[in-house]
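User: Sorry, folds how?
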Amino acid sequence: MKTMIWSIGWKNVWRNKTRSMVVIIAVLLGIFVGTMTSGFMKGWINQRVHDIIYIEESHVQIHNPDYLFNEELQFTIKEFEKVVHIIDTAKGVVAWSPRVKMYVMAQSDWAASGFALKGIDVEKEKKVSEIHKNIIEGSFLEGEYKIPSIVIGSKAAENLKLLNYQVTSGKLDSIDHELFTDEVINKLQNIGEKRYRKEKDFRSILSQSLSIQEYNKYGDKLTEYFSFYRMGIKIKLTIQNKNGEIEQPVFKVRGIYKTSNTMFDGLTAYVDRKILNQYTGLNSKEVHEIAILSTDNETGTELGERLSSYFPESNVMSWRKLSPEVAMYTDFINLIGFIYIGIILLALAFGIINTMLMSVLERVKELGMLMAIGMNKKRVFSMIMLESVFLTLSGAVAGLIVSAIVVKITNRTGINLSFWAEGLEAIGYSAIVYPVVTVLDYIGVILLVILTGIISSIWPARKALKLNPAEALRTE
């Protein structure tokens, strides 16, 4: 009997194919949009968490408590050797890196800017941070030079006027002829090889050389293509050593990195810690920060709590405490996704109810006959509920299949939001998003769909249960 009810329920879905297909397509689109939106938000947050941990902060950081309130040079981590020994033997530690951190003024021949200077042990830093993978010009403090090296962010390089613009013969020879027309390329040859330090000056000469239509179409791409960073430029740093004396060491820019966080790129620079200590007066056991990388995010949180009990004299913070707002987004992103899909399903539920009500009203005589030959109210309710669930599930499964295909493709290619790149990167979010939808997310959506189908069947089923078999059989 149960098998028969399931069979009847499935066949009843397709009695009116047009009406059923309208509902199925509506559910398909709703589930697709909801799942993609949820995956998009989750991918976006996951990328931000990754950047915070593997570029900006790490899983755990240790500081002298006084340093957090007053970032002065003398507030280094207490009992450095004891701390290092415990870190080396602690479970869940993948790597750690000591850092000297101070705020300095930097001056090139054309401009001045301030940033946080980090003195690092290069090889240890590479095991903790991915900043060396984000180098877009030069190298990450490799090699030995008479004048020491410094690595700065792309925004800091721009602030120091190291980003220049020049139409060179070499770049003209390698220009993409499929992207730019021959007419545009010929006009570029007339600009000459003058170097421009300001973007607005270079754009001005482009607008004079090209037509309005050409400039509007190619201006941004040409400005980016002919831009370059001046490497090996000397910059003078103004720092204060631990005796309160002013030092002005000179470094050469031999590496420029770029991340998805413009603010970080403008405010963080790296030098070798041994070289920096020659000017600060600190020794090898005096550091302001120890960054620790763990096996995964949750282990990192547990590691931070465990190390806090080991080092009561130090301030130990996991990535969740270092970036509480992002940690909050991570905790709630799954819930937000299900709420969003739930709202879509709630709106679709009214369409499902309407469809099922019409189906019940069209089958009054048939339902009356089924009840007259012995089908009880429980089975009638089950049959209508199954029809509603089958109708909803058909659209949901199709929507999930389509979304799974699209997510798989976009997870590899990314969704490019370059139109808003400047604004997004200003707040630390990447302009290319890779959506993420897990198996658990799909299971959760399926359960929400089944629940929606059951709830949507209650009203039509109650309508059917109120039918009088004798009166129903007389209905034409």
